[in-house]
Sequence to fold (628 residues):
Amino acid sequence: MADPLPSWNDGAAKSAIVAFVKATTDPASKDFVRQEDRIATFDQDGTLWVEHPMYTQLAFVLSRLAELAPQHPEWETNEPFKSTLAGDLAAFANFTMTDLETLVAASHAGMSTDDFASIVNAWLAKASHPRWKRPYTELVYQPMLEAMAYLRANGFTTYIVTGGGQAFVRTYAERVYGTPPEHVIGSSLETKFEYDPDGKAVLMRPPKLLLYNDLAGKPEDIYLFLGRAPLAAFGNSTGDQQMLEYAQAAGGARLMTLVLHDDPQREYSYGPEAGQADTKFGAFTRALYDQATSKGWVIVSVKRDWKRVFAFEP
Amino acid sequence: MADPLPSWNDGAAKSAIVAFVKATTDPASKDFVRQEDRIATFDQDGTLWVEHPMYTQLAFVLSRLAELAPQHPEWETNEPFKSTLAGDLAAFANFTMTDLETLVAASHAGMSTDDFASIVNAWLAKASHPRWKRPYTELVYQPMLEAMAYLRANGFTTYIVTGGGQAFVRTYAERVYGTPPEHVIGSSLETKFEYDPDGKAVLMRPPKLLLYNDLAGKPEDIYLFLGRAPLAAFGNSTGDQQMLEYAQAAGGARLMTLVLHDDPQREYSYGPEAGQADTKFGAFTRALYDQATSKGWVIVSVKRDWKRVFAFEP
Fold:
């Protein structure tokens, strides 16, 4: 039989994933789960694609605000716009939730849902990552794409559960991850049903946050969308802690996994270990590491567990 | 080939449904739609099951409030409890949104998501409809079950999009309609992620409305959950108007359908026609009828189009 996870090195992480899939899909297993309940959830930033030097969606915000800035001279002096337009990541890391909502409102709202999707698609087509000089949509982790495909081949439905914007991620999730729009759960603005001048129904995006899908928001929104806990949950930061706790609390065979970024040569190194960078983009604290260890969560080391990080590597 | 809709009389409604399915699933058709985008949405009350003499979930509210009333002597004198406990449907029809939220808060909130599901299941097991003396879950329209099954057999995913409570409907939707929890979109309370005394993750239900999934809320929530308009939409009242408009506005071959309750012998008669009852539970106004006629929406007459209404009929 062909290896379903060819970009993974043999080791504890790969073994745990394969053992979990076998245990939950073999009808003879005591941990067998019917196909309808095989739900796997994946964080996006830092779990499925690169989140450094900043979240990709923040790069979109910077680009969009720069485009709009000429019509808003007041942004040159007013925060949080001033620091954001200056690309001051240290300032950004200290922004309050209200600051972030202000930036999202200015960059993501005030147009129809269709127009927003067009704006995102146009940006993705031209933007590139500062280190690899490739489209952001190529900076996805090949081992995680294989894990998603392996789960789907075994009857799982794979969901992206992201702190990022649901409407943003849905524009590319199907072609990049194989997940259709209805399998993407993310932070969301409200929409408002209106009629255009021709009387045609249209959904507008007012600047009002409906779902903040991070931390405790992840299990809350998983319940809202799916009505039950995931059987397998993959994350990489403190923003995923509650999602993994929710999965584990549901009992039975469950797989909780955290990606640890510890490979500065092939990607980045940030986390709780000596010499690793501290960061606000995907914080993996010592407390989270200890919790993972004590609760039997699987820690995936980029350095040790991944044979290949990106599909474009030789 | 066996008739996929045996409980439907031959006529314009049945023909329209069959023609739409053929047009959107035949690869040679100019209106072919790939399987991933074959989304059909169904209102529940009055479209999939009986909504008279009152919404089934309102019967649950009455029962639940009666159970809790001994601990709330103030309900005997305070509205909206007083009229509700007295079963005063005329008063109920005039309740404001705030009144309804108050009733929902008292009857649906303040417990964990698991406990709420247990309460609903226990009620459904013992409750029965006043006219047919059968469990409410048997008062589903056999022709609509066949339409759902027919669509699914042709690659459609069927969603329930209900003004009723999402957590309420999800308790029985899979066994009654064949729709798993993630295919039920409904009005929703917020949930709150907490830890129980043993430190285990649990989701609680505070008395706070998150989604009001009726009228314009239907297309807004369909977009929130699915990211796009349905290819086919089925409803029966003014609460479904915007959902059907949203489907039609997306263009291409779309099926918009409204069930008209015009059979007092086998079920109920309420709607815009002479002699039909006016009602707050599933209003089908003259304006909606005219809109349906002018826009090519399919009107399903219970009396003429359904050979059989319920599965338990001979």
